[in-house]
Amino acid sequence: MNNVYIRFWKKINDIHGKCSVKEYWKIMFIHLSIYIILFFSFSIGMLLKVNYGLDKMGSFLIEGSIIVSIINFLVTLWPNLTITKRRLNDAGLSWFILFLIFLPFGPMIIIYFLATPTENDEWNFYSK
Q1: CA distance linking residue 36 with residue 59, whole number of Å
Q2: Which of 3, 28, 60, 80 would suit a FRET pair with 107, their CA atoms being 20 to 30 Å apart?
Q3: What digits encode the pLDDT tens for the residues 32-86?
Q4: What are phi and psi of 57, to 5 degrees?
Q5: What is the chain's alpha carbon radius of gyration, rounded to the nearest angstrom?
Q6: DSSP secondary structure string for all residues of 11-25
Q7: What is the pTM of this model?
Q8: What distance in Å separates the CA atoms of residue 76 and residue 2, rounded to the nearest whole number?
Q9: b/e map of 88-119 (b: 16 or more CB within 10 Å)?
């Protein structure tokens, strides 16, 4: 799993390459895990502040988790876009599909396309 994440950061500007389904979802799982940990620290901070009156510790956890979440989002925004474009290239689809995110059910459609098999895969029904 570490090799996948290291390759993710090394290919930060490679928008013309390809990315397998497994590799893409491993990286997204790592990012989801980071946000879950930050959410739990935010929740613990709210619990300490509201229920126990520990204003300093609660505020520290709340503000810290928000700041770290924003920094994490900004730092990983470009690499996430490039790996998503590589995943769509691997599936044989255009990167213009990313604009579906602005439609009501667009994110679900994008997730479906990101989970499609590789273009040369024998199970791929788009290439037939």
Answers
A1: 19
A2: 3
A3: 999 999 999 998 888 888 887 777 778 888 889 999 999 999 999 999 999 999 9
A4: -65, -40
A5: 18
A6: TTT--SS---HHHHH
A7: 0.78
A8: 16
A9: bbbbbbeeebbeeeeeeeeeeebeebbebbbe
